[in-house]
Amino acid sequence: MKPIRTTIIVIITVAAVLAARRWLVEPIYIASDSMAPTLTVGHHLFLDKLTLRLRAPARGEIIAFRSPVGEDHESVKRVIAVAGDTVELRAKKIYLNGEAQLETYAYYTRAAEALRGDDLSPVTVPEGTVFLLGDNRDNSNDSASWPDPATGLPPLCLPLSAVTGKVRGAY
Prior knowledge:
The protein has helices at residues 2-23, 51-54; strands spanning 25-29, 44-48, 62-66, 74-82, 86-90, 93-96, 99-100, 120-124, 129-133, 158-159, 163-170. By secondary structure, the protein is an alpha+beta fold.
């Protein structure tokens, strides 16, 4: 009788852990420096999969998502603008709804170089999407550099359907 009971407890426990990982929280790790210095290679974090099912991401939040340009991995970036916002980049500086933003977390590894994505004409973020940038602006594949499939030009705002969760604390 005891082995059957133990087996049932193990099965229920494994099922509960797998369900929680699928719908509630999942451990993730950072594999690139695109979010440095905020998150660097090797950081282990929790991905909250529930919160952003109940509401849209907010400006400043760090989220995980499936790549909109065919890369075979999830990425982590910061939400810069949400639906209805107008975002512009001038010489690596963010302007949100016409106002320059103070971004203490932004990091430039090649500040003196002019790179693709350093300048972007004003763009209004469409409904159902967000505009994302990595904190390591000169080393990030994000909304300022993703090509729009229709035009081949940036930016490509991320559809909310590609968001997989909100990045939470480290473990």
